[in-house]
Design a protein that fits this description.
By secondary structure, the chain is mainly alpha-helical. It has eight helices and two strands; from the N terminus they run αββααααααα.
Length: about 230
Amino acid sequence: MKTREYLAIKRRIDDFELAESLTRSKLIQGARAGNVVALGMLLGNLALIVWGPYPQGTKGLFGQANLQIGSVSIFYQSIFIIVSTGLLLILQDYMFKRTMLGKVMRAVALDKDTAALMGVETDRAISLIFAYSSILGGIAGMLIAPFFSIDPFLQNIGFKGFGACIIGSFSSIGGAMAGGVLLGMVETLGAAYISSLYKDTIAFVLIIAFLIFRPEGLFGTRTEESGL
């Protein structure tokens, strides 16, 4: 009888500790997400103070020069973006598949706890991932800046980049690129044949549709998780 009572009390304590750890984990994740949002607001307002509220433009490396091929013309900046993107994709593929740093990043992204058990310093790896993604984001911003009026709260572009990964796959570099191409084509065709007023709406509807019906993306694989 005493053993049964002890086991019942022990189970209650274990359940409480589990619930407390889960709650603490959710609070930490929520705090981190809140910190990211707060940091974004801080940087946006600092940019507003430094450069003012009015959108600004940049000419880029090639200005408005374009290549004329028959009746078709294309900006040199667009060619530069395509070539630079291709080189960055090759670099990404090499880094994630051939280097130890890339393999560590993939391991942490796949399963942080298991990676920690294998001796990976997950906190440092996450910091490196954030730094690396920030560098890539900065390069992307410099490439496309000549085509946009820049203001501190230009957020739709970043969201569409995230949407490209949703459509393609978060686990495939080529899939993310294909998702971006598909999203851009749908957005452009929708603006041409429906209305330019609904260009962003069409893109967001496509992203939401993938989140609902195929959250793993076009090139991702659906994984089943057991409840054990």
